[in-house]
């Protein structure tokens, strides 16, 4: 497949690039400084600022799918959706956040008293993205939320999938490595099972 990854130089984006290339996909890595990524077979890098919608649309044209791995608080959804539409691209997958996941019926993690204040703006913006995507009728979108703790780690290939509820491991922790998150995301790219909705991944 021909996959575009927006925000390809970040912690998560770079792992998505690695996973996609390892599976034999052709990857167009898009970021402000994407050319800093090491050259590899099957990888094209494009230095594009998200504010340049026309240039981003051109980069997305002809792709099978795009994955957005950008910060919600500093990147309006329109900056991604506009170019996606201009490019005639139907499939958009989004690296989501855990804050909008429910810890109890109707109660989101971001609204709990113990949610860290420094992460709240990003979590609230992520929830806004998700709510806006849920109104989209002409786009095959998917929003993948990690667990509460989202860290660099091992690529184990062993994890669980869920829906709108925060997953918790047997030891009481809610976590997922970025490497295993990338597996779940590329699995979804290859075999769509959550089109038009959010799902989550955790141990």
TrEMBL record:
Domain of life of the organism encoding this protein: Bacteria
UniProt-recorded name of the protein: Azoreductase B
Report domain NAD(P)-binding positions.
Answer: 7-190
Question: Is Oxidoreductase one of the keywords?
Answer: yes
Protein's organism: Pigmentiphaga kullae
GO MF annotation, one: oxidoreductase activity, acting on the CH-NH group of donors, NAD or NADP as acceptor
Enzyme Commission number = 1.7.1.6
Q: What is the lineage of its organism?
A: Bacteria, Pseudomonadati, Pseudomonadota, Betaproteobacteria, Burkholderiales
- Which is one Pfam family of this protein? NAD_binding_10
**Top-tier EC class:** oxidoreductase
InterPro entries linked to this entry: NAD(P)-bd_dom (IPR016040), NAD(P)-bd_dom_sf (IPR036291), Polyketide_Oxido-like (IPR051606)
Q: Which UniProt keywords apply?
A: Oxidoreductase
